[in-house]
Amino acid sequence: MNQKAVSLYIRLHCPWVLGPYSIADIGVRHQYAGAELASGSLDEGKSFFLEVAQHVYAPLFAVLDRVIAAQPTLQITFSVSGPFLQQALRWDQSIIDKIRAYVASGHAIITAEADAHSLAFFYDRAEFVMQVAKHEQHIAQYFNAQPRVFQVAELAYDDQLAAWADAAGYSIILADQYQRVDPRFLHRPARTQAVRLLMRDRQASQQLMARISGSASGVSGMEFAAQYANSFNPQQQVSGLFIDAISLQETDSQPNWRFLAEFLAAWPSYGRYITPLDAAEQFTPREEVRTAKTSTWLASGDLRSLIGNDLQKEFLHQLYDIKASVQDSGDTQLQEDWRLLQSVDIVKAMDNAAYNSAPSHEVFLRAMNSLQDIVLRSQHDTTQETELSGRYNVT
């Protein structure tokens, strides 16, 4: 197996957008994100999802359709996040139909992950296991697939997570490139038996994303395929090319879909497409990888932008501290609303980079007020004071 192999990964995600939620809303209304306004107009979340669907996902799927028609060997690994799935089911089910068709035709597989797109593994292991099971149920229900590839939100990864995935029976786990480990080889996580590790080829993935986003130019998709193929050495096994589709919504220019189509169509002239499952079956791991800390594919390379500042720490402490009362309530809608607030996108919006700006504090206050409402609902008494009240309320 010395032919150059590419494992193409595409993240399908859309964050929940927390709507305005002040002290006046606590105990009165219980919709924190994705709600229709009383006027009948679209809220921030629905508007954003439909905009992303039109601007990113519809043209992306059109590219994949054209490439598959010309190159039937194309294989895709989709990450379908819980928030993305829920919003697509609510607002544009044609997206679900399209993904299901890729899976049914054998051109795509879907990863397993925590349904709430959360950091629960690092805070509450039982909650994490439940979320993974729920996501697998959804993948089976909507796509008739059973995931064997595992990942966590933002490609968070460490030895403990790999050990859990190994014990859970997954074949391979995905992560970002770690320190100086060569990402173009399959690896074995430390202290595991059967699970394998495939890393994002960071440099190649960033170069690809820069050209798709329009922030870099100068070569065509066909020329990029040739350059990329020439960057392999004879021993390297597989390169994980990871596309974060939602990030294309954040660029100033229109995505260069022609470049992507040219590159994907040209690659079979130089190598082949495989899934992470194929890699686990076909390649012998090169080395054992041990991690000194949790890594992610975020700019910081770790969890700092998710759990690093006081706003994030306070919110996450309060969020998981109320689990028992939420679970004891027996209210399934309440439990789902609580899990919605676990999405990493909410704490990411409280990042240090915007620590002193109004938006980060506003997200924090909306989230804390939402938590207070959840506590009140769990007690079946919307007039009772709780330990969350007062300090962080915003009018």
Structure report:
It is a single chain. The chain has 395 residues and is α/β, with parallel strands linked by helices. It folds into two domains: 5-289, 7-stranded beta/alpha barrel, CATH 3.20.110; 304-378, no CATH class. It contains 15 helices and ten strands. It has helices at residues 44-70, 82-91, 93-104, 125-143, 159-168, 202-213, 221-230, 257-266, 276-282, 304-307, 310-321, 323-329, 332-340, 344-348, 358-378; strands at residues 5-12, 76-80, 108-110, 149-150, 172-175, 188-189, 196-199, 238-244, 272-273, 288-289. The strands form three sheets. Strands 1, 2, 3, 8 and 9 form a five-stranded parallel beta sheet that branches. A three-stranded parallel beta sheet has the order 4-5-7, sandwiched between helices. Helix 1 packs parallel to helix 8 (257-266) and helix 11 runs parallel beside helix 15 (358-378). The longest helix has 27 residues, at 44-70. The radius of gyration is 21 Å and the shape is globular. Residues 36-42, 381-386 and 389-395 have low confidence and may be disordered.
Question: What is the fold's blueprint, element by element?
Answer:
Blueprint: E1 5-12, H1 44-70, E2 76-80, H2 82-91, H3 93-104, E3 108-110, H4 125-143, E4 149-150, H5 159-168, E5 172-175, E6 188-189, E7 196-199, H6 202-213, H7 221-230, E8 238-244, H8 257-266, E9 272-273, H9 276-282, E10 288-289, H10 304-307, H11 310-321, H12 323-329, H13 332-340, H14 344-348, H15 358-378
